[in-house]
């Protein structure tokens, strides 16, 4: 156990005091502080107990945190007040100790702060520990912004919980595409191979810059001879590029829809490729995420018969006040949340009717009814335990999912199923989730470089000049 002895002799270990919302957000946070020690106030345990009932994500996490604490405490010969070693329970992830509040601590708080409030009792514990260990860094960890502000106003160190974040800066999130420099072809001219196969052109490139590309990443170069391609093979110092299908041309339209910009063309190449099983599309409102996905889904369900039906689901987080309970079946309850589906189907029905040889109301009604029978709307609440075989699964508003919920949904995919996640990281409505800790950012980062995954961040809005201007100035 040399790691533990090194930890005890080290003077730089900190003492982190955990707020309840950290444990309810990520129960495994108990093992995420490496060599540093943790302190859990009795008020945190009280609040965990108060939130353990129910079927919400918060309640499940509260129960899981309680179980993990029980595992750490049970069977321990050492006294609780001397700290519990986290080395074995964490499977050697953490080398610090866990301290629980075992004694009453004086509530030395400013007069204006009521001592009956749970947050203030935790602040009093931090204040007491700071006075007790003047030479040690005592830090409050909380997801509550106001709690951190109050702590800092009292001269206490406080910080957010960062271990759940994929990236500190979402500007660094993988965009799925890369612009080639003007000198790229000159730098890689030596040893380059080129050939044609099934109407596509392939380029095999050698060099350090080629090795920096990611599998299924899109590359482009504008100018007199524009190139749009994607990386189909990648090794340490080489890569194979394949040119794309041009979905901006009417002859390659998808359910009457053509790509209006470069990123939409990249997205349709992913959506229409049977080798791509998992796709993430990020973008602001009006960039065409849902329209492109539905057009590709309808084409592959009704025309090419690649998938048997479309399943669409989304997180039901209201923007304003909740409208209460909704009557009807699962599908009827979800209908008010699926306004985006209805709007996009109206557009797609219009494009289908333009080329419909059976003109008139009967033909249009038959088309709509046929489309309706192949689209199922499902609630996230009933996804656990299901398996979708040969389905086109669309997860809308995926930015509101936690990494754990995202895993639950993606693992529903059976043989022949394609999963598409749509979202806008600027519109997160779920408490405690940020752009860096959203399940959507999590899967974009974790799936990057897998041979059957594709990702594109759509840049330009194509809704209307009004919507584009509002997106810029408001």
Give short descriptive properties of this protein.
3 domains, disordered N terminus, 6-stranded mixed beta sheet, alpha/beta, single chain, 18 strands, globular, 474 residues, Rossmann fold
CATH architecture grouping of the largest domain: 3-Layer(aba) Sandwich
Tally of strands = 18
Give the DSSP E fraction (strand runs of 2 or more residues): 15-25%
Radius of gyration: 27 Å
| Structural classification | alpha/beta
Report on the architecture of this protein:
By secondary structure, this protein is an alpha/beta fold. It has three domains: 2-159, 5'-nuclease (Rossmann fold); 170-243, no CATH class; 262-318 and 329-473, Rossmann fold (3-Layer(aba) Sandwich). It has helices spanning 2-9, 20-25, 42-50, 57-73, 118-132, 145-153, 184-187, 208-211, 262-271, 289-303, 330-334, 339-354, 361-373, 403-410, 439-447, 465-473; strands at residues 15-18, 37-40, 84-85, 97-100, 138-141, 157-159, 177-179, 193-197, 200-206, 218-221, 227-234, 238-243, 278-283, 309-314, 375-377, 391-396, 418-423, 453-458. The strands form three sheets. A six-stranded mixed β-sheet has the order 3-4-2-1-5-6. Strands 7-10-11-12-9-8 form a six-stranded mixed β-sheet. β11 (227-234) and β12 (238-243) form a beta hairpin. α10 (289-303) crosses α12. The longest helix has 17 residues, at 57-73. It is globular and about 75 Å long.
In short:
The chain is an alpha/beta fold and 474 residues long. Helix content is 33%, strand content 18%. Helix 14 (403-410) links the parallel strand 16 and strand 17.
């Amino acid at each position: 156990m040399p790691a533990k002895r090194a930890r005890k002799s080290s003077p730089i270990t900190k003492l982190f005091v955990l707020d309840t919302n950290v444990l309810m957000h990520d129960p495994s946070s108990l093992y995420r502080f490496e060599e540093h020690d943790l302190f859990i106030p009795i008020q945190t345990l009280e609040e965990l107990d108060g939130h353990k009932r129910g079927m919400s994500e918060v309640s499940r996490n509260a129960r899981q945190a309680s179980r993990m604490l029980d595992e750490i405490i049970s069977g321990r010969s050492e006294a609780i007040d001397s700290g519990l070693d986290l080395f074995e329970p964490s499977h050697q992830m953490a080398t610090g100790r866990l301290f629980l509040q075992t004694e009453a601590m004086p509530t030395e708080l400013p007069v204006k702060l009521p001592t009956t409030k749970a947050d203030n009792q935790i602040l009093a514990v931090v204040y007491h520990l700071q006075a007790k260990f003047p030479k040690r860094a005592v830090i409050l960890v909380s997801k509550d912004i106001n709690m951190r502000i109050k702590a800092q106003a009292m001269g206490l160190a406080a910080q957010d919980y960062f271990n759940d974040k994929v990236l500190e800066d979402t500007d660094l999130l993988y965009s799925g595409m890369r612009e080639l420099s003007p000198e790229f072809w000159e730098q890689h001219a030596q040893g380059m191979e080129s050939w044609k196969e099934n109407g596509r052109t392939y380029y095999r490139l050698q060099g350090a810059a080629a090795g920096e590309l990611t599998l299924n990443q899109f590359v482009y170069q504008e100018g007199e001879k524009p190139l749009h391609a994607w990386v189909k093979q990648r090794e340490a110092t080489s890569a194979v590029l394949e040119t794309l299908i041009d979905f901006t041309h009417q002859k390659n339209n998808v359910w009457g829809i053509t790509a209006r910009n470069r990123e939409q063309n990249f997205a349709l190449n992913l959506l229409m490729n049977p080798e791509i099983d998992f796709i993430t599309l990020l973008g602001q409102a009006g960039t065409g995420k849902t329209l492109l996905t539905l057009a590709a889904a309808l084409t592959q369900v009704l025309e090419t018969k690649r998938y048997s039906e479309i399943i669409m689901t989304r997180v039901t987080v209201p923007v304003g006040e909740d409208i209460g309970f909704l009557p009807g079946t699962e599908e009827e309850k979800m209908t008010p949340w699926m306004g985006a589906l209805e709007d996009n189907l109206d557009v797609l029905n219009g494009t289908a009717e333009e080329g419909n040889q059976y003109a008139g109301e009967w033909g249009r009604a038959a088309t709509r009814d046929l489309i309706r029978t192949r689209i199922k709307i499902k609630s996230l609440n009933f996804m656990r335990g299901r398996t979708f075989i040969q389905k086109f699964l669309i997860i809308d508003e995926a930015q509101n999912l936690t990494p754990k919920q995202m895993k639950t949904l993606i693992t529903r995919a059976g043989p022949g199923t394609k999963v598409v996640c749509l979202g806008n990281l600027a519109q997160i409505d779920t408490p405690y989730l940020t752009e860096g800790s959203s399940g959507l950012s999590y899967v974009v980062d974790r799936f990057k470089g897998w041979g059957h995954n594709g990702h594109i961040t759509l840049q330009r809005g194509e809704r209307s000049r009004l919507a584009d201007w509002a997106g810029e100035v408001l």
